[in-house]
Structures are given as C-alpha cells and as structure tokens.
Amino acid sequence: MKKYLVISIAIILGVMTFLPFLWMISASFMSTGAANTYPPKLFPDKFDFSHYQNLLTRLNLARYLLNSLVISLGVTFFSLLLNSMAGYAFAKYRFARKKRLFKFLLSSMIIPGQVTMLPVFLILKNMGFINTYFAIIVPGMASIFGIFLIRQYALSIPDSLIEAAKMDGATELQIYFRVILPLCKPILVTLGLFTFMGTWNDFLWPLIVMTDSSMYTMPVALANLMSEHVQDTELMMAGSVITIVPVLIVFLALQKYYIKGIMMGSVKE
Amino acid sequence: MNKTKLSAVILFLGPSLIVIFTFFFLPVIVAFLMSFTDFDIYALGNLSNMRFVGLKNYFTLLNDPLFWTSIKNTFYFVIAGGPLSVATSLGAALLLNSKLIKYKSIFRLVYFLPVVTTLVAVSIVWRYIYHPRFGLLNYILSLFGIGQIDWLGDPTFSMPAIILLAVWKNFGYNMIIFIAGLQNIPEELYEAASIEGATAWQKFKSITVPMLAPTSLFIGVITMIGYFQLFAEPYVMTQGGPLNSTLSIVLYMYQEGFRWWNIGYSTAIAFLLFVIILIGTVIQFKLQKETE
Q1: Domains of chain A in sequence order
Q2: For A121, how many CA atoms within 13 A lie in the half-sphere containing its CB?
C-alpha cells in the first residue's frame, strides 16, 4: 500500500516536471495556430517543420546560435586555463598571506553580481568592447567559484608527484601542463560544463552588453523575438527548443560530472 | 618545503587576480562611490556632468513607492517561494532515497532536467502554459472544477505564477544536495529507532531533520541569495506587471540603470540589495545556531 503511494507521488512529480517540455516540443511541430485550441493538444496532428526553417533562415537564429557558441566556448576555454592555474597555486604553492587572500576571495562571493554591472559596463565601454564577444568573454575569464573548485580538487594531488617532476628538472609551467592538468581532468570537465552551461543560459549580462541585434545570444534573441511574435505560439516553442537542445545534449553527455560538481560546491570548508 | 618562487606565484595567480580585480573588486568600489553621485546619461557623455550628492540617492529611494513595491514583491517571492522550493527539493530527495522506488536514475534525471535548461526559454514556455484560454495549466485545473484564472494578467496570481515556475525550474538542484546529505546519515540510526518502535514520522523528525541541519543551512542560504536576485522570469513573462505586481529589485535596478541611465540611483538600489542579502544570510546563520 505504502509502496504504491510513494511510487504514484514520484510519477506524478515526474509528469508535472516533464509536461512543459513535452508540450513545448510537440507545439513546436504544430502548424501555425494549432497550439491555440481548447482543450490543449499534447501531440501534433501532423509534423510541421516550417517554424524551425523560418527561425534558422528568415529570422537569423543560426547567427545567434553561432554567437552563443563562440561566447560560451570562449569563456569556458579561458576560464578553465586561468582558474586552474590559480586553483593549483592556492592548493600547492607556499607564499605569504596565501590563506588570508583565499579567505578574502571566498568571503567576497556574498556580493551579488548585480552590484558590479554598471561599472563593468562603463569599463567595457571605455575599452570599446560593448557589442563584441569580448564584453562577455573577458569579464568571464576567471571566477572565484572556479578557483575554489579547482583548489579543493588539487589539494588531493600528492606533493611527491610535484617533487619528483622538479627532481627531473621540470619548470613550473611544465609541471602544470604535464602533471597537474592531466590529474585534474575530472574537475576540469565539471567546471567546464558549469561554465559552458552557465554562459549559454545567462540572460541579464548579454542583454546589457549586446545592444546590436547581430550580436545577440540565443536567450536575448529569443526574448526579443517574443516581443514581435508573441501570438506565434508554435514559432516561439520552436525557438525555445533550439535554445535548450544544445545545453541539454552537453548535459546528458556529461551528467555525472555535473552532479559531482554540485556536491563539491556544497561541501563546506 | 621551501617557499615557491615569487615569479611562479605571479605567473599562476596574476592573470586570474587581474581579471577578478578589474571586473569584480574595482567595480564594487566604483559602484559604491557612484551610488553617492547623480551619474546619469549626461555624465555618460561627459564625466564633468557628474556631481557628488551624498546620501541623496538613498533618501530618494526610501521615499520611492516603486522601490518599496519592488522590495515587497521580492520578499514575497523569497519568503513564499524559497521555503516551497526547499520543501519540494527535500520531498523529492526523500522519494529518491526511498527503497520502494526502482529506476531511480530516470526519476532523478527527469526531476533535474529543468535545472539545466535556459531560464528565458522555459519562461517563454510557461507564459503559454499560463495562457488563460488555451493554456495547459487552466485546462488541468478545469478537470478539477477550478475556473479560468488569468495567471499573468491578474495581480493576485502573477507572483504565485512566477513562484510556481521558479520552484519547477530549481527544485532539482537542491534535491541533489539533499540526496547527498541523506546518504551520509548512518543506516544504523534508523535501524536502532525501528527496534525501539519509532514511527516513520518520528524517525524523520528526530533523525533525518537534525542530521540534515548543515545541509539545510547551506541550501537555505544559497536559495535565498538566488531568489533575491529574481530577474529573468518577470522580465520575460510580465515585464514587472500587471500593476507592478512582479516588479523585482533587480528588474527595477535594470530599468533605472540600463533603460533610463540613472546610474547613480541604480547602483544605490544594487547596494541596498546587497545589504538585504547580507542581513538575510546573517539571520539564517543565527537561527541555525539557536536551534542547535
């Protein structure tokens, strides 16, 4: 009895969670106007791909996909490099005031990002970066959370490995590239995944720094598209599918790294 | 072991610290200073148009009805949505930790899917789900005899609608952290309680809840911080309406700063948000200590 109750609750929660996705996908294949019926249909009568074609050709979504891809990959690449160098240094290097500096960085994470937005906008404007990929990539090249994540992982690397490499005459950079980076691979995948998905999904910052429509990222383009096409339910659903699918594929391929990252981030010092 | 060479420290820490200083610490300081000026669209063109106005922005804010509306709405969202979201996460975690359920990894994946999707995209999807005539939600409610609700058009229902979307979108994240916390509770505690004839509810109250306390504090704090920063949902679904019923602090900050270029005023809003978050975090830590 109890067993069936628990299973039914789990299934109901699952259906409630999944229903919006199911409706989004099937509405995106309905012909124009077909999603606005009562009662709502959960499956299209016939598959209509015209909204996808429209979005990718006439409405320029391919360009926005490219923007999002370049920006997300750019942020991911540079932040992995910079954060892993700093995270490794905080884990293994010995220098004055290391602990204090690290604690200071961690405690500043309580400051919400919105506080910095106007000055960062002005700085980027002075650098001439507004409406370029740099406006998102450059401020995203390092993050305190990323440094923290790498450091926690790098602490577990035995000192003896680093010492041995030094004995062999390796320079600091060689140690980092040949010993540390390969050992940090799992955490690099995790952090890379967080960064890629976070950048892809971000809305407020690209909305602020990309004012020229040719530079929009997918979420900004989608929000903008809706102001003109709010009546075209099926078209908007197709746009949502195109926005979500790339991150979903990346997530499904690397799920376990993502889950591990959440748990690591929640481990208290 | 010896100290690391200074050149290596600079090489490895320098780049990221420069980025973090330039795009985080420096802007925090600049924002703080700007909140005491009348920095606006004219100063944007020529810095000499900027004047130091002391605490004027803060005083104006305290007398700005729209600011108080945004505070009220944001607190509504945090106080109603936060606990609802955490409770859903805990419920889902308990379900997935139960021995009665098979295919756990599939359930976990489904519950988690909304977390990784793009907030703007799902906000748009939910906008249509909330459609008063053709929306899925009103159709489902009508099966239970509940009449047509204008979710996003009625000031009474607009915030509940946004809360429902936020809970749906976020509960999977905290669920994962709760599952990890639940798995760290030693099985023997439950076995011992069973031998003494404790009911499921007693076990939950006197073993699960106290053992999860550190996890709950962490989740409480990150959920609260995240919920105070409400922005994309109202931006996409209601633009702060109807009748400003979903105008959040960050949305108001965005409008003042990036739509009207009242930059000094907008940074003052951002700092008050920071102070509110700080106070909220301190209160949660205090409450946690008292219950221990």
Answers
A1: 1-48 (no CATH), 50-265 (1.10.3720.10)
A2: 23
